[in-house]
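Newbie here. two chains, one complex. Structure please?
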Amino acid sequence: MSAPERGGTTTYLEAIRQGLWEEMESDERVFMLGEDIGVYGGAFKVTDGFLDRFGEGRVIDTPISEAAIVGASVGAAMMGLRPVAEMQFIDFISCGFDQLTNVAAKNRYRWGQATPIVVRGPAGGGVHGGPFHSLQAESYFTHTAGLKVVCPATAYDAKGLIKAAIRDDDPVVFQEHKFLYRRVKEDLPAEEFVVPLGKARIHREGRDLTIVTWAAMVHTAAEAAEALAADGVAVEIVDLRTLVPLDEEAVLTSVAKTGRAIVLHEAPRTGGFGGEIAATIAEKAFEYLDAPIVRVTAPDTPVPYSPPLEEYYLPGKDDVQLAARKLLDY
Amino acid sequence: MSDSVTSVEAPEIVVPEGVRLEPERLLDLYWYMLLNRRLEERLVNLYRQGKVIGGVYRSLGQEAESVGTAYALEARDYVSPLIRNLGSILVKGAEPVDILKQYMAKGTGPSRGKDLNIHFGDLSKGFIGPVSMLGDMIPVMAGVALGNRMQGKDSVCLVYIGDGGFSTGASHEGWNFICAQRLPVILVAEDNCYAYSTPTDRQMGNRNMVDRAVGYGCAGVQVDGNDVLRCWHAASEAVSRARSGGGPTLIEVKTYRRKGHAEHDDQRYVPPGELDTWEAKDPVARYERWLLSEEIVDRSQLDQIENRVRAKLDAAVDEAEKAPMPEARTALDGVWSTPRWTAEHPNFHDFAAEIGS
């Protein structure tokens, strides 16, 4: 596979590949390390062609050692480099958890040492990956001060945010939604662009109800909104894009306009980041609310494997519609 | 597999073949070992006066291996100590006054009161402090070495692990990656007979950690950790090997932790007589005897060094005691490069101001 061509219809996966490629081209401090990212081009082919272009000095196949991958990224970042570490599946970040949450996240606070690393990988369900290949891992990391957490929903954002993540001076967990890799595509500009961290996006405008969400659930929310529109209900969808930093203003502005809020996420409910959004709305926009804040999430179970089980587990269009109707009738 | 409990049998210093016996360097080694020991004694005094916040982690009996191995490094090299390797960062230029401020949680210490003891680094001096999770710094030093190699620098890294810490997964993952990449890193594996209260033979089936070098595919050497010359020499050879592209070396040092895990530890798990046995092998006294018997120095010169150490520490303790504690609100600073809360905008506690905003 050769250098990615800019512009035209681009998949979410290709958009990430473009973003990585451009940053590797423009900044020699950027390098990548991970399992099977070189000759094989990564389990999902995100780094296909990188070894040929950039060489094994900058595209490093590692042992199956997530702690070493994240830890070595931290050390290289201290030496002035910009490592991009791939987790073959984001689920395996648990094996590098300590390096991320104790070493990378606390360096700046403890002794003023910047740790500009990106730990990226495929997250999320919908592909029947089972309990170890389907995780939305954001809550482990939103709860860790010092990390930033990015969860793009569109090809444009996937490209613009991976570039911003690499340029950021803090450690960033970048969750790529694997269900979206080849299903989501759009026309991207041929010119270079970067999407700043910490700025939410209004995916769809509406006046009756706000859905705050991120990653693949943006598309689930859009399907529900489309169905509700047929009944004259105008749903506004706030795509957070990054959970840390959180664009509180975008959330509060939307809720102040609509007076009703659903928080929608793919991860299990208890301790999920939706609780943080709901609490923020309750604390800061209570007087604008016409109804309770509702969370639509996965249940508190591991992600199950068999299609009927997984479909039941994942929040769907119908779940969102049902919640919306209850809120509108409140 | 051998089962020698320790190779620290020779009561006296053994001069390794090929070591350069320049008096200036030999006295440097003595200076740092003594500074290490006396600084810890000051810390214990301050601890007993209630001026140290938290524990004091002594390296009594291990000064030779920390100082000797780190002394093999050049200014452009990096070291990552464990809690008991105070001597190694003194060699790399850490100032006692900073160590004291750290232990006393002062606001002008290197971590501004955010973290304890030697949990800080100074890249300009080439040391990177540890986190409490043992073994974590091995993968980090893999990255430091990788980063230097990618930039065409010939810096060497040295990182310590204990007989306890070498049981962690991070240690293995880090060292295996270093060996797979042939990175210029030296791992000093310390058998100091205890990990907190757990004796070394409860940590591993083969007491000789040097044997692991075969499995990892790196050079390995076992040395008497209470002999500063042999530690220095072994590390010097490893540094030369690493710098010339010969890859990593695992140096096992056999030594003994003569104090408890920290000051509060009553060492009830130590068999009677063991401490006396090891006091007789004290690395500082042993080196002192050798310096005198070889007539490299006389007693009055050693006394002068002692006086210089005392004066330095007097000044450092004085300065550290006078240093202010941190401003409470600075607890909010320095988490991200783009701050959410800062001491100037401490809305963390100002809920009333936030509500309805």
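Moderator note: Residues 8-188 of chain A form a domain with the Rossmann fold fold (CATH 3.40.50.970). The CA atoms of residues 32 and 259 of chain A lie 45 Å apart. Thread marked as resolved.
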